[in-house]
Fold:
Amino acid sequence: MSQSEVKRGRRLLFGRALGLTAASVFPLSARLAGSGSEPASGDLVPPWTKTQGHPILTPAYGERSKYEAAVVRVPIPGRVNTLTAASLTPLQDQRGIVTPSGLVFERHHAGVPDIPPERHRLLVHGLVERPLTFTMDDVMRFPSVSRFHFLECSGNSAGEWKRMGSDIQVTHGLLSCCEWTGVPLALILQEAGIDPRAKWLLAEGADAAAMTRSVPLDKALDDALLVYAQNGEMLRPEQGYPLRLLLPGFEGNMNIKWLRRLKLGEQPFMTREETSKYTDLMPDGTARQFTFVMEAKSVIVRPSGGQTVRSRGFVEIQGYAWSGRGRILRLDVSVDGGRTWRAAQLQEPVLSKCLTAFRMPWQWDGEPAVLQSRAVDETGYVQPSRSALLAARGSESYYHYNGIQSWRVASDGSVENVHA
Ligand code: CO
Structure:
C-alpha cells in the first residue's frame, strides 16, 4: 500500500466508525492549502522514537517544553525601573481561558516582598466589634472556595487613547485570568463583627509601598475573596504570596497583594492610589473617582498585530471577551471595519467576571480587511467603538480604555493595529 492509500484508508475507517463520510470528517482539508502534506517515508519513525526519553526528574518542579521558551512576559515599553514596573501577559500565545501562573501580568510599586508565610499576619480592625489578627493557618481554617476570574489593570490599553501598540501583548497584556482559591472575605469580617456604621474598608499591602485602597463594604460582603492559591498551587510571590485580596471585576490596583490589614470605616480613606492616581480625567476638566468596575471589553487574539495570516482561505478568528459586571452575553465580529457584524461562537464555560473565549470561522479572500470584536455583557452593556469612547471620555483619560480594537490584515497577510 502506498502512503496515500494508508492515509485514505485511515480517513475512511475513522469516518465509518462515526457514521460519517470522509468529506464530512475532514471538511477543512481541501481548503487548508499548505497545512499538511504526505509523509516522507523517513519521517515515519523519527529519532526520538528509537531511543529512551529522559527519566522522571526528582525532586523537580515541572517545566514546559524548551521549545516554548520564547513565550514570556515582557516589560511595558519604556518602563525601566523594575521596582515600580509592570510586565505584560503574552495573550497572543494563550490557549484557553487560564493564564499560566508564570505568565500572569505584574504590577509592583516597591518590588516583590519575600514573606515567610508563618510570619505573615492579617489585622482586621476599625469599625468592628473585636479587632482580630489572623495567621495564615487561621485564614486557611475557614471554608474555601475556588473561582475563575479575570484580573485587569485599569491602565490596560491606556496607550490606545493616543498611540497604537504594535501587538496584543502591548495593547492588552495587563490582563490575565486564573482559578483563585481562598476564603470569602465576608466570613472573616463576620468573625470580627461588623459595626453597622461601617461602609468602607481600607485594604493595605505588606510591601514597602504599603499599597492601600478603599473598598466599598458592599463589595467586600458580595464576592470578594481572601486568596492564597492560584491555578492549583499557592500564590506566586509576584501575585501576593501568601495572601491577597481579590475583588472580581474591579480594577487590578484594588486587588491588594501581600494583604496585611483591613480597616473598616464610615468613609473612603482617600489614599494616594485613589486621589492622585486611578482617577479618570473627563473632557470638562473634572475627574471621575472610584471607578471600580472594568466594563465589558474584548479583543481578537488570532490574528492580531505583528502576526501574519499565512494564506487565503479558512482562518479561525479567535479571541477573548470579559466584563466586570458579570457574564458575556454575546460577542460580534466584523471583518469590514465595523460595517457588518456576525455573532461569534462563545466557548464554554461562560463564567461571570471571567475571560470567555470566542471563535468565528472566516474565509479570507486575500483582500485587505479590518477585524473587530464587540462584547455585550449580561447587563446589556455594549462595548463602545473607539470613537464613541473618545466622544464620551475625551483624549486626556488614561484608565478604563475599553474601546473596540481594530486589526488590519493587509493583502500580504501582515496584521497591524489601526485606529478605525
Ligand atoms: Co478606575
In short: Confidence is low (pLDDT under 50) at residues 1-31. The pocket of cobalt (II) ion is lined by residues 154, 251, 278, 291, 399-400 (CB under 6 Å). The first strand starts at residue 74 and ends at 75. Residues 89 and 173 are 5 Å apart (CA to CA).
